[in-house]
Design a protein that fits this description.
Distance between the termini of chain B: 37 Å
Number of helices of chain B: 10
CATH superfamily of chain A: ABC transporter involved in vitamin B12 uptake, BtuC
Number of helices of chain A: 12
CATH class of chain A: Mainly Alpha
CATH topology of the largest domain in chain B: Rossmann fold
Number of domains of chain B: 2
Number of strands of chain B: 9
Number of domains of chain A: 1
Number of strands of chain A: 0
Largest sheet of chain B: 6 strands, mixed
Order of helices and strands of chain A: HHHHHHHHHHHH
Structural class of chain B: alpha/beta
Radius of gyration of chain A: 18 Å
Oligomer: heterodimer
CATH superfamily of the largest domain in chain B: P-loop containing nucleotide triphosphate hydrolases
Structural class of chain A: mainly alpha
CATH class of the largest domain in chain B: Alpha Beta
Helix content of chain A: over 70%
Largest interface: A-B, 22 and 23 residues
Strand content of chain B: 25-35%
């Protein structure tokens, strides 16, 4: 593989990681980490169908994820207790169906991602989507943070809290869809969650928290992707393990500080 | 008589077949301090949520047109590791540092020369979750004052604040009422506080047990009916 290609993929990966970490840092504060993880499994049947039809798996994943986030949004809005078990059941069922209908040759790619197969167009679309997600999130981040602090404060102080939540879930669907191409359905969740929990370990302010989350995401991609190429390993798991290493460092740093 | 800011008629809230509050009616004129008292589980917080439109209800709830309302919830639990400073919390609502200084002053977190460093270091630049109970309550009141509300709904202001702090939260509310001409709705279970600071009281125990000025309606009979014998004796002893 030529150097230029690795640089392009690393740049794309870095932007995906940054946008995932930014959106994911709100997800962690909303205590929805596991939902975010389970959510990525819904993408699998969508990807299988897209591959069978010969269209980009990102599109198939996004269509299925959109339905899933609408479901979450609806349940959250219309039910007193958040039915987490139900969400888990539905999402793992999707994974099971997805594994059954995905062709064996495509399965490994769908589960763990394959950045080698990303075309230039897909790469460019991914860059545009990642940047858009970052911009849209930053426009609504204050209102989202109010919902994190207290749903009741949000309901009485902001006009359309339910619409803001829906918009947020759509952003989640977008980042999970593009993340899947990089690290696969099984590992996208970690792209969303791990940089954020690492950043939460060491951040005191909101600004620092978001910045460090995005930065940790970027470091994971920028170190992980070239490293995986050098070691001839699949890139998804390497990127995820780099972010986990960052988490471990921040965890002990926090322990040292609070001792 | 002053303009009515909130008129509630025959308000009933049910959850399934269970009636939580039954047929409540009251009016709140502008500038009043209106208290809702009652034992635990009497439906006080439910009543607040109903008049805020956060839950479904039967009956009528009419606010003055375009009125600005702020709500301070009862359990304001902040994860102590939530990465947000008090300054950032207040900035979620306004970008104006001047306004933030103003509301902090009205809640008694003053930026006097002696304290300027204190407020900045100990309150504004600190994590919201690291504030003491009293400081957090003040910060939340400050937040609710941003946007100049005409009505402040306050669910159990003293919950989680030590006794010394209690008195100051109430005198603070009193001051806000005087300086900002605000109408205040309180949920409380402390009779002495209600007697001291309230213009009208509504006793609630699923049904409307009493309604009127505390000096008239808070007699031993209503208190018995509201809290049962135990409270009556306690109250009696306290008075002697």
């Amino acid at each position: 593989m030529e150097i230029g290609n690795i640089i392009f993929l690393t740049l794309t990966g870095a932007l995906v990681a940054a946008s995932s970490a930014y959106v994911g840092s709100i997800m962690v504060l909303k205590r929805m980490s596991l939902v975010g993880d389970a959510l990525s499994h819904v993408a699998l049947p969508g990807m299988a169908i897209a591959l069978a039809l010969g269209i980009s798996p990102i599109v198939g994943a996004f269509v299925f994820l959109s339905f899933a986030v609408l479901g979450i949004w609806y349940l959250e809005k219309n039910s007193d207790t958040y039915p987490e078990a139900l969400v888990g059941l539905f999402f793992t069922a999707s994974l099971a169906i997805g594994v059954l209908i995905t062709k064996e040759v495509d399965l490994l790619e769908a589960l763990f991602g394959s950045i080698e197969k990303i075309s230039v167009y897909e790469g460019l679309a991914t860059i545009v989507l990642s940047v858009s997600v970052i911009i849209v999130t930053s426009l609504f981040v204050k209102k989202l943070m109010i919902t994190v602090i207290s749903e009741e404060l949000a309901q009485t102080s902001s006009e359309r809290i339910s619409m803001i939540n829906l918009l947020y879930y759509v952003l989640v669907a977008v980042i999970v869809s593009i993340g899947i191409r990089f690290v696969g359905t099984l590992l996208t969740g970690s792209l969303v969650i791990v940089p954020a929990v690492a950043s939460k370990n060491i951040s005191k302010s909101m600004k620092g928290y978001f910045l460090m989350s995005a930065l940790f995401g970027v470091i994971s991609a920028v170190v992980g992707i070239p490293l995986s190429k050098g070691l001839l390993l699949p890139s998804g798991p390497v990127v995820v393990l780099v972010s986990v290493a960052i988490f471990i460092i921040t965890f002990f740093y926090k322990k040292l500080l609070t001792r | 008589m002053a303009e009515v800011v909130l008129s509630v008629k025959n308000l009933t809230v049910k959850r399934g077949s269970h009636t939580i509050i039954d047929n409540i009616s009251f009016d709140i004129p502008k500038g009043e301090t209106f208290s809702i008292i009652g034992p635990n589980g009497a439906g006080k917080t439910t009543l607040f949520k109903a008049i805020l439109g956060l839950i479904k209800y039967e009956g009528q709830v009419e606010w003055k047109r375009d009125i600005k309302i702020s709500y301070v919830p009862q359990r304001f639990y902040i994860d102590s590791e939530l990465p947000i400073t008090t300054q950032e919390f207040l900035k979620l609502k306004t970008n104006s540092e001047e306004k933030i200084r103003e509301v902090l002053e009205s809640v008694g977190l003053k930026n006097s020369d002696a304290h300027v460093k204190n407020v900045k270091e100990h309150i504004l630049d600190n994590r919201l979750g690291d504030l003491s109970g009293g400081e957090l309550q003040r910060a939340v009141i400050a937040w609710s004052l941003l946007g100049n509300p005409e009505v402040l709904l306050f669910d159990e202001p003293t919950a989680g604040v030590d006794v010394v702090g209690e008195e100051t939260i109430y005198s603070l509310l009193q001051k806000l009422k005087e300086t900002h001409g605000m109408t205040i709705l309180l949920i409380s279970h402390e009779l002495e506080i209600v007697r001291k600071y309230t213009t009208t009281v509504l006793c609630l125990n699923k049904e409307q047990v009493c309604y009127g000025p505390p000096s008239l309606v808070l007699n031993e009979k209503t208190i018995d009916k509201l809290f049962g014998e135990e409270m009556h004796y306690y109250h009696h002893k306290h008075k002697n």
